[in-house]
Amino acid sequence: MDELEALLELQQRDLEIQQLQFQKDSLIQKHQLLEIKKQLEILNQKISHKKAIRDDLVKKQKFSELELSSVEDRIKTLESRLYSPASNSTKNLQAMEKEVSQLRHRVSDLSDPILELMENIEQVDVEISPMTSQQEQLLEMSQHLQTEIDKSEQQINEHIDQLHEKRDELVALINPSLVTTYESLRKRLGGIGVARLVHGTCEGCRISFSRNELDRLHRMEPPAIDHCEQCGRLLVIGIDK
Ligand SMILES: [Zn+2]
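^ inputs. structure came back:
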């Protein structure tokens, strides 16, 4: 293969690699996954917020239950003393009865809020439940999408690898300084570093040459290489499609 033909084919392979890279970056599943991750993030925040409320309610419930159980223990102790046959002074008995009565009030003061706390916890659980189902669904969807992305990326990567191999073979046929020029122009000019002269027009910038410039280019021994005076790309003269 002629060096300039190799250069033009190198340009083709590079465009294909660029296209595949773009295809890989813009996979529809990547966009969908990003959306799901956003939804999951919001949902996770909502769930953590609800769980924090629940933890707080549970803590309060436990604290009240602990107090209630200590009050009930104290009542039991006092009652066992009240009904024991051991002699107790009337004064003592009255004091104990008074304390028991006060403690019973405390029991009812503590019981209602505990019930209320339990109801509140139940309510929070009812709110959390559909959120966790949705969370599971979203996680499942994201895993499914990730699998699809991995599969597509693997296929594209294999194709890119093949193109890179072909690319290396082509580069070996071209003068290294020409490859360097091509590479720097390609990077600077939107992925196209070399173009052909077709029907008096540069295929890179699509601008027609002046009569004088065209005469000069046509006087070159084909296939020849020059630069497009308009876009600066390498210009191959005398190779048709
Ligand atoms: Zn041009």
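Residues 198 and 206 are 9 Å apart (CA to CA). The chain is about 75% helix and 5% strand.
thumbs up if we can close this ticket
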